[in-house]
Amino acid sequence: xxxxxxxxxxxxxxxxxxxxxxxxxxxxxxxxxxxxxxxxxxxxxxxxxxxxxxxxxxxxxxxxxxxxxxxxxxxxxxxxxxxxxxxxxxxxxxxxxxxxxxxxxxxxxxxxxxxxxxxxxxxxxxxxxxxxxxxxxxxxxxxxxxxxxxxxxxxxxxxxxxxxxxxxxxxxxxxxxxxxxxxxxxxxxxxxxxxxxxxxxxxxxxxxxxxxxxxxxxxxxxxxxxxxxxxxxxxxxxxxxxxxxxxxxxxxxx
Amino acid sequence: xxxxxxxxxxxxxxxxxxxxxxxxxxxxxxxxxxxxxxxxxxxxxxxxxxxxxxxxxxxxxxxxxxxxxxxxxxxxxxxxxxxxxxxxxxxxxxxxxxxxxxxxxxxxxxxxxxxxxxxxxxxxxxxxxxxxxxxxxxxxx
Lengths: 254, 141
Known about the structure:
Chain A has about 250 residues and is α+β, with helices and mostly antiparallel strands.
């Protein structure tokens, strides 16, 4: 456990130091704080404002430099680059870095078809899940609770009937005997009705439980939860590994 | 979740076994104060004999007993009944409760010359001054 915490803290420390965590909403004041050294006369700053819903993007500059930060310092000049974000189609673009200036590049990415298909299929999967599992399960639970409430009420009435039957054997007045018999007749009728409702409800609950199990198993057998995995198009070019013992930057050539 | 459902239904079935029909509900005709009493005679004749009273008149004494198990659980200190022996109406009579919960009635009637004496007793209902659940028992001297 301690090793895991130490690993997470180390990874966070390294990532925050290297600026891998994205913050597209950072203010201008925050961005200037991250410039660790003054700009050289031939350098400028490029800032990417990428409109994505997950807050993460990668920019491959001149097919050689992978930037995972929302701003960086580059030598002045014209650059061609490609931006990518999980779930979005890679989009090529051009930008200019002017010496001593901060240029902002606004980019809007479009969802790729796989992501759109995933969203649709996942919505369909969830709808089927609710139809096959949630709805029968809720009906079973509700029916069981209603049956249980009638069972408790029937227990209370039964107790009264048993007490009145015992009182009947004790009564030594005709009026008292008649009152007890009326109470027994009324409560016994209610007890029979509640008992019938309870037994019927329990039968329905068992049937619903069987239906729920059947539909859930059928749903599990016929449907697999859609999974969307989108790898960076440049995942095989660079890898950065962090461990408690250090970090490693790896370039795959070829 | 599945185990919870199984446990719940086992408990439900367990509880449902207790929800059976209440015994004795259809048999509420065993109290002698009930006008719908359907049991057997609630008294019996212990003995009967003839004797002469202090005036020298021939009399017959019939001892009737109302056993403890024939009366309600809450025993009244005195049991009131109306009685008739052969053609002689004794009207409303009562007997105190004995130690064992029974009631003993000594019926002193005139000797009418017959050997057979039939006693008719009915439970007296003081609330509306009526007699209910009358039975007749006979005895030979």
